[in-house]
Request: fold
Amino acid sequence: MTITLITGANKGIGYETARQLLALGHVVYVGARDAERGAKAAAELGARSVRLDVTDDASVRDALAEIDSAEGRLDVLVNNAGVLGHGAMDGPTALKTFDTNAVGVVRVTEAALPLLRRSANPTVVTVSSSAGSFWAVTNPDRPEYSLPLALYSASKAAATMLTVQYAKSQPGIRFNAVEPGTTATDLTAAFGVGRTPEESARVVVRLATLGPDGPTGTFQDEHGEVSW
Reply:
């Protein structure tokens, strides 16, 4: 059995990633800030649920302790929870955006490391974005060039850098960041764009199911490595 935890998995790409990994035989824990919504999503999927708010240290600690008690290890961690950070360009909005999209990655990953080290094939996938790619946002031919989401972009650049640094400091665990593609979810509803979560989740699933010889420290989309 492959034990997998996905944060922010009660809807969108996280939910669909859970569905696809369950179909591949994973035991999936749906991490959700709202325990009731998480339990509902898990029941629909045939998964397990755990209350996990990536912005709350105690919540993260308790969630990983619960998985540790039940499973004794963690094989795959998908850092999926995120916020768009649009609206006011001010300190409180910046703090919330970075706390979720970047600091949340640190909270969950640090709490998960002891469990991941007990796995024979430990893998961490962080859902990042090409909106955080310096190459993409400075290229007039790319849609990210005119995307009005400075805080989101900056926080996702941080998430990708954290991925690379974790890959260097934890050579026994594969860490990769992924651009899943513009997806029609609650996050992007205001823009009215995006493909189905099912399509985007396939990119996440590919990196979540790497073998022991798979790459680490990369930033990828469905076509391969992305410049950043």
